[in-house]
UniProtKB/TrEMBL annotation:
One of its GO terms (biological process) is tRNA modification. It catalyses: cytidine(34) in tRNA(Ile2) + L-lysine + ATP = lysidine(34) in tRNA(Ile2) + AMP + diphosphate + H(+). The keyword Plastid does not apply. Pfam families: ATP_bind_3. The keyword Ligase applies. It comes from Oceaniradius stylonematis. ATP binds at S38, G39, G40, G41, D42, S43. Belongs to the tRNA(Ile)-lysidine synthase family. GO terms for cellular component: cytoplasm. This is tRNA(Ile)-lysidine synthase. Its EC number is 6.3.4.19.
């Protein structure tokens, strides 16, 4: 359903705050940047705010809007056409991407999200674009943390949505509106006379996110607690990743061996626990061919083995086989794990907070480097 603004209200902070996020992007001259635009309020605000900023400050940057038609609702094709017409009016190139094939009977929102990221990543690669902007907001952050808390997620998950994430080791997805609220963006659209599309699935209580959204709307104090806690955990996650990367880079602690590595626990004994834990979580993911960094519990269990197990002892964990000999621990893929070194590791989205760990792993194992987050150095 199309929502048209009824009044030209007061311009909100959105117009002042969003450009700060855009200005941090380190884009080469004449770069192509993709905007993920569904036509909903969040992505419509992204479209208009990005056009406003880049037209004024980086006119050399080509904006390409992309709408993913999931084919889940009869109106989705018309909504994509509406976005295309809006982009034509704004002088922005537009493309519609279609999620083809059979759709799952359950877990539709999760499957649609994975399909959306895959399609946008493929488009970015074709367009030689290193950055895709998405319209995630502060409300998305609070909802995500609430859902993870309900599933008793560990501290990493409770850090919430990162400001950027690397897809397929090639394309950065950046969320410049993550510090702005959903209503604030709609107020700005209304004040500027821009319309947007209301997706009826956003009111369908069969979906967990919709139910959580309603709960948080009734409890703003809890929403604020979730956001504050997420920001604190994300900052701690960034610090731990930096400490872990330093640990992986220290060749008195970690060395490459064949398709795995050798860890010297005595050399890491004097370090604060966070660094070796983050490093081990990352190394288990690389050598065990996991899609993401291992959880802290597995890393801590592995470190306990490395420190206390007698020589000659072995442990199989997270797709790895660990063998302690002469005080050092060799970490190798378990025999049944036949994937190539590093295969699957970070094939899902790699949060920018974890990038130092990923790049340190690449140095340790002699693999190609991971492209750095696309931000200017502060």
């Amino acid at each position: 359903m199309l929502t048209r603004p009824e009044t030209a209200g007061t311009i909100t902070f959105a117009e002042d705050r969003a450009p700060a996020a855009f200005s941090r992007l380190a884009l080469p001259a004449n770069a192509t940047m993709i905007l993920a635009v569904s036509g909903g309020g969040d992505s419509a605000a992204l479209l208009h705010l990005a056009r406003r900023h880049f037209t004024a400050h980086r006119p050399d940057v080509r904006l390409l809007a992309a709408t993913v038609d999931h084919g889940l609702r009869a109106a989705s094709a018309d909504e994509a056409h509406h976005v295309a017409r809006t982009c034509d009016t704004l002088g922005i190139d537009h493309v519609t991407l279609r999620w083809a094939g059979a759709k799952p009977g359950t877990g539709v929102q999760s499957a649609a999200r994975h399909a959306r990221y895959a399609l946008l990543t493929e488009l970015a690669v074709r367009q030689q674009s290193a950055v895709v902007l998405t319209g995630h907001t502060e409300d998305d952050q609070a909802e995500t943390v609430a859902m993870r808390a309900a599933r008793a997620d560990d501290g990493r998950g409770l850090a919430g949505i990162d400001e950027a994430a690397l897809s397929a080791r090639r394309v950065w997805f950046v969320r410049p509106l993550l510090d702005l609220g959903r209503q604030e963006l709609r107020d700005w659209l209304t004040a500027r006379g821009h319309d947007w599309i209301d997706d009826p699935s956003n009111d369908d209580r069969r979906f967990e996110r919709v139910r959580v959204r309603a709960d948080l709307a009734r409890d703003p104090a809890r929403r604020n607690v979730l956001l504050t806690g997420a920001a604190q955990r994300m900052e701690r996650r960034r610090r731990d990743a930096m400490d872990g990367a330093a640990c992986l880079d220290d060749r008195t602690i970690w060395q490459k061996t064949g398709d795995g590595s050798r860890f010297m626990p005595a050399s890491a004994a004097s370090l604060p626990a966070a660094g070796p834990t983050a490093a081990m979580a990352a190394e288990l993911a690389w050598t065990g061919r996991l899609p993401r960094i291992a959880d802290a519990a597995r890393a801590e269990r592995t470190l306990a083995f490395c420190r206390t197990a007698p020589n000659g002892t072995a442990l199989t964990l997270a797709g790895c086989r660990l063998q302690k000999t002469g005080g050092a621990v060799t970490i190798a893929p378990e025999p049944r794990n036949r994937r190539a070194a590093g295969d699957r590791c970070f094939e899902t989205l790699l949060p920018s907070a974890d990038w130092p760990l990923a790049d340190a792993l690449a140095r340790l194992h002699g693999a190609p480097p991971f492209p750095p987050p696309p931000f200017t150095k502060s």
